[in-house]
Predict the 3D structure of the following.
Amino acid sequence: QVQLKQSGPGLVQPSQSLSITCTVSGFSLTSYGVHWVRQSPGKGLEWLGVIWRGGSTDYNAAFMSRLSITKDNSKSQVFFKMNSLQADDTAIYYCAKRGGGNYFDYWGQGTTLTVSS
Amino acid sequence: DIQMTQSSSYLSVSLGGRVTITCKASDHINNWLAWYQQKPGNAPRLLISGATSLETGVPSRFSGSGSGKDYTLSITSLQTEDVATYYCQQYWSTPLTFGAGTKLELK
């Protein structure tokens, strides 16, 4: 069955970077894109970006300057990196599989990030 | 960016009753709308795509309707397990955007 499993740190200091690995199973990264979404009490659900099955990416303009999404198809892994973190980046970060359109039919378990010194 | 407005942040509901959750887009989204259910501690769960297409495994008491800018998620005969927060999401254009959510609370 389709699964997305996330790994990454839960606490980073201001100005540092966040790196999360999303390891997928039950589907191929060459067949489906993987999106990244975050959720916070203050801003709700925010779409961050996507890596398409062909490897190209699209980012939310609000985050484009400090966001990078890459992947390794052979390892079924997607890599998320966000730089220059501040306190308002505190949120739960999710990877999610693209469905038949740009909606999300399967989600990772989430990575809870706290940005604090 | 397309703004998604869920007019009710909270709805007080009764078991066995009918629930209607509304979502309005700031521009036409041509039925490119999804609905999600989220329970505390869990990731959102996809219920409906294409405004009206029920995902496999989702109970038939859930239904979606709407067109243009205005969309609705309905739940008939509300069950205990339906008490959750519901979000709409447009995928007509990027950035993909979500509503702020409607939380169901039992009367």
In short: The mean pLDDT of chain B is 97.
